[in-house]
Amino acid sequence: GFLVQARDAVLSFGQTPALQGANLSARAGEILAVTGPSGSGKSTLLHCLAGILVPDSGEIWYDGRRIDTQGEPERSTMRRDHFGFVFQFGQLVPELTAEENVALPLLLAKSRRASALAEARSWFGRLGLDGLEGRRSGELSGGQAQRVALARALVSRPKVLFADEPTGALDSLTGEHVMDLLVASAREEGTTVVLVTHEPRVAAYANREVIVRDGKVTPLFVERLTS
Ligand code: ADP
Ligand code: ADP
């Protein structure tokens, strides 16, 4: 069975077609790489799967429920309770410390501040961030900031982690370190990962890879059995 699925998703931005009948499924626990050229519709597809955008036609399913027919308040609650997000840039709130940034999803879900911060801190050692709890984003390197963003995405133990070019702003060595941690954490937690990337080295971390061209998902090229 699958956990997330797009069926014949079509979406245009004005006259610009972004999705033209995209079909994609991710099974529970798998790490799926979505690759393809710039402008092919990868981010739009991820945003539809994550309930951020609603396609003009077609269906989006999550865990046996159709989500594209739900209203924004329902989708927003679902994103908060089930999904984590990592993007390329600008993810941390600059006014907050690293540990406050990580605690944010728990605080938004109405956890008590002390327990949210304790849970947030527990991720620092795991991601090699010891000692950085009190720093603000301006005082972190790019790789450190991206690991803090990863901790924030995982702290609420999401069922699905949506990662859109998570290493796009990092040099290749730092990017590989972040991907190692992302994949290891996701495997430990059994998180399903939908990973958008145009970098083959990043896609190589996935169990399975699909390619998007002109708003359609072409049949997969690679199935990796290592996990
Ligand atoms: P990718 O992630 O593969 O680079 P996108 O999904 O970002 O592709 O974009 C698909 C197409 O939709 C592109 O032609 C892009 O310019 C266009 N597009 C994406 N987002 C918007 C937007 N908010 N407004 C207008 N056009 C957009
Ligand atoms: P990507 O790395 O996915 O190609 P882009 O740089 O194309 O990212 O897009 C970054 C942001 O700008 C996204 O939120 C996307 O929706 C938006 N965007 C992309 N193309 C356009 C466009 N032609 N007009 C307006 N917004 C766009």
UniProtKB/TrEMBL annotation:
- What SMART domains does this protein's entry cite? AAA (SM00382)
**GO terms of molecular function:** ATP binding
Q: Residue limits of the ABC transporter domain?
A: 4-225
Sorted alphabetically, which Pfam families does this protein's record hold? ABC_tran
**PROSITE patterns recorded:** ABC_TRANSPORTER_1 (PS00211), ABC_TRANSPORTER_2 (PS50893)
Gene3D superfamilies (UniProt xref): P-loop containing nucleotide triphosphate hydrolases
Record has ATP-binding as a keyword: yes
Alphabetized, the UniProt keywords read:
ATP-binding, Nucleotide-binding, Transport
Tell me where on the tree of life, at the top rank, the source sits. Answer: Bacteria
Q: Does the keyword Aminoacyl-tRNA synthetase apply?
A: no
Name of the molecule in the record:
ABC transporter ATP-binding protein
The record lists the organism as Streptomyces carpinensis
